[in-house]
Specification:
CATH class of the largest domain: Alpha Beta
Protein name: Formyl-CoA transferase
Radius of gyration: 25 Å
InterPro entries: CoA-transferase_III, CoA-Trfase_fam_III, CoA-Trfase_III_dom3_sf, CoA-Trfase_III_dom_1_sf
Distance between the termini: 27 Å
CATH topology of the largest domain: Rossmann fold
Number of helices: 18
Shape: elongated
Keywords: Transferase
Pfam families: CoA_transf_3 (PF02515)
Number of domains: 2
CATH architecture of the largest domain: 3-Layer(aba) Sandwich
CATH superfamily of the largest domain: Crotonobetainyl-coa:carnitine coa-transferase, domain 1
GO molecular function: transferase activity
Helix content: 25-40%
Length: 401
């Protein structure tokens, strides 16, 4: 595990995570990496379904090893009143509550924001849901992929005229988690500076996606323009596309005026480099098909390595399309500690992504490996003031595990 000399940036902040799968837990992961004490409440017997998602090693998903590092697991049945009472007891001493249930779930357990703020006025409550806590769609079920569709992203992720495709990861959930993290940090700052009161952060999956859709709506508002799918190209900016090589693909971003000239010179097309109408983006967009064809013809006769060396020497931004193997073997990733070796509680080591962003004085760290279900139940409840006899009684009733 990493070790750092400086106190962690969020040391002393306690987070109760009452969510599962991706959006809420990714926020908890991020806060935990910077020092927050994240207590994850999971259902007894089953736990977070992410424990069993995708590839399994020694009975547990390797994804879990990343998503739940730096967390403590409390197996607590929130369907039982005694479980709800314990949750309230833990929340009463917390700084942040993260949940990504369907709207109304907390209220059904007697844990509405008003009730929780009466118990803990400084509590910051992050609520991530498909459509938000208000509005006509609030009660509809929503996953990240639905947020990507409603947020406008899926309409653009396709080759023209072909079926919209997902980007390959749960980007809607992760965007919601990152927006939620921003909200938590902002609310904690506000609490510290402006009187100690907590507040509710309402993050909808589709709104988090919509927030990164750049000029989509202004273009529709000003021109009635509906942006359409454009494959790997960047519409209205040229040249910026993926081009085939003999052994793979490269992305080339030659859309700066001076960069375009260097790119055309590097590929032997001085005629295009010197063309007056191609000296600005507007002219290049008008002839983008011709430009893309010229670049593609040049890359197709070369290997990825040859293309990268030539364009690197010409100071043209270009990048190989990486696979997991490429990332794992890349020296730049390792030089920046973006590939770390993490010990697991199942007795093996696994390489995992490093920590982003990188802070100079209080960098994030991996302090503890991802827990088994209920690993920390007794310790957390003892910290909350329960006696060994009370904990044993709760276990006999199936309230905890």
């Amino acid at each position: 595990m990493d070790s750092i000399a400086s106190p962690a940036a969020l040391q002393g902040v306690r987070v109760i995570e009452m969510g599962q799968l991706i959006a809420g837990p990714f926020c908890g992961k991020t806060l935990g990496e910077f020092g927050a004490d994240v207590i994850k409440i999971e259902a007894p017997e089953t736990g977070d379904p992410l424990r069993n998602w995708r590839l399994i090693k020694e009975g547990t998903s390797v994804w879990w090893q990343v998503q739940s590092r730096n967390k403590r697991s409390v197996a607590l049945d929130l369907r039982q009143k005694e479980g709800q009472d314990i949750a309230r007891q833990l929340i009463a001493e917390a700084d942040v509550l993260v949940e990504n249930f369907r709207p109304g779930t907390l209220e059904g357990w007697g844990m509405s924001p008003d009730e929780l703020h009466a118990l803990n006025p400084g509590l910051v409550i992050l609520r991530i849901s498909g459509y938000g806590q208000t509005g006509p769609y609030r009660d509809l079920p929503g996953f990240g992929v639905i947020g990507e569709a409603m947020g406008g992203l899926r309409h653009l992720t396709a080759e023209p005229g072909r079926v919209p495709v997902r980007v390959g990861v749960s980007i809607g959930d992760t965007l919601a988690a990152l927006h939620g993290t921003i909200g938590v940090l902002t609310a904690l700052y506000h609490r510290k500076v402006h009187g100690g009161k907590g507040q509710v952060i309402d993050v909808a999956l589709h709104e988090a996606v919509f927030n990164v859709m750049e000029s989509l709506i202004p273009e529709y508002s000003a021109f009635g323009a509906v942006r359409e799918a454009a494959g790997s190209a960047l519409p209205g900016i040229a040249p910026s596309n993926a081009y085939p090589c003999q052994d793979g693909w490269v992305l080339v971003a030659g859309n700066g005026d001076s960069i375009f000239k260097r790119l055309m010179t590097a590929i032997g097309r001085q005629d295009l480099a010197d063309a007056p109408d191609l000296g600005s983006n507007t002219g290049r967009v008008a002839r983008v098909g011709e430009i893309d064809a010229a670049i593609g013809a040049w890359t197709a006769a070369r290997s990825v390595q040859q293309v990268m060396e030539t364009l690197g020497a010409a100071r043209v931004p270009a990048g190989k399309v990486y696979t997991a193997k490429d990332i794992a073997e890349d020296p730049h990733y390792r030089a920046r500690d973006m590939l770390l070796t993490q010990e697991t509680r199942d007795g093996y080591s696994v390489e995992v992504p490093g920590i982003v962003p990188k802070l100079s004085a209080t960098p994030g760290s991996i302090r503890r490996s991802a827990p088994h279900l209920g690993d920390d139940t007794d310790a957390v409840l003892a910290e909350a003031g329960l006696t060994a006899e009370q904990i044993a009684l709760l276990r006999s009733k199936g309230v905890i595990q």
